[in-house]
């Protein structure tokens, strides 16, 4: 039970830390955002798929400057038996984003993260990312 509790605690803090890093990079250092993705990552942006780190980077370069306000973050560990023992976390984020030339919009985004060995220990990399604007219903 302690092991499960520590995984939940780790995923919660990791989700918060990763979300702050991701949106700060997206808003202030967009040219570096693709470094947060695995080479084989997938992004689905409002239903439009982008496969691979290079294509994701090219897509992000087309977006106007953004300012993001995170309102909520939830993170849950993925059970080892589903990811062959690889440390994996599902992070769900919602908030408000403003792109230059557009009004502020509610959004939600889900990241599937996996721990990868980096030069200074484990780092989180995005396996898949699904972004959606919240549209107002009439």
UniProtKB/TrEMBL annotation:
Major localization class: cytoplasm
Pfam families in UniProt: NTF2
Every NTF2 domain range: 14-133
Record's GO cellular component terms: cytoplasm; nucleus
Cellular compartment(s): Cytoplasm; Nucleus
Top-rank taxon: Eukaryota
UniProt keyword annotations, A-Z: Cytoplasm, Nucleus, Protein transport, Transport
InterPro entries reported for this sequence: NTF2, NTF2-like_dom_sf, NTF2_dom, Nuclear_transport_factor_2_euk
Keyword Glycoprotein found: no
Gene3D superfamilies reported for this sequence: 3.10.450.50
GO biological process: mRNA transport; nucleocytoplasmic transport; protein transport
PANTHER family to which the protein is assigned, alphabetical: NUCLEAR TRANSPORT FACTOR 2 (PTHR12612)
Function, as annotated: Has a role in nuclear-cytoplasmic transport of proteins and mRNAs.
Protein's name according to its UniProt entry: NTF2-related export protein
Organism: Araneus ventricosus
Protein's gene: NXT1
């Amino acid at each position: 039970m302690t092991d499960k509790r520590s995984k939940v605690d780790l995923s919660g803090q990791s989700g918060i830390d990763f979300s702050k890093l991701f949106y700060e990079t997206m808003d202030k250092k967009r040219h570096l955002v693709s470094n947060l993705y695995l080479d084989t990552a997938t992004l689905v942006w409002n239903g439009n798929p982008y496969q691979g780190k290079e294509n994701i980077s090219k897509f992000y370069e087309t977006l106007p400057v953004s300012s993001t306000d995170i309102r909520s973050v939830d993170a849950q560990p993925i059970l080892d038996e589903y990811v062959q023992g690889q440390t994996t976390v599902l992070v769900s984020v919602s908030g408000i984003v403003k792109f230059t030339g557009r009004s502020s919009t509610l959004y939600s985004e889900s990241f599937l993260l996996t721990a990868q060995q980096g030069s200074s220990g484990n780092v989180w990399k995005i396996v898949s990312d699904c972004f959606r604007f919240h549209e107002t219903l009439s």
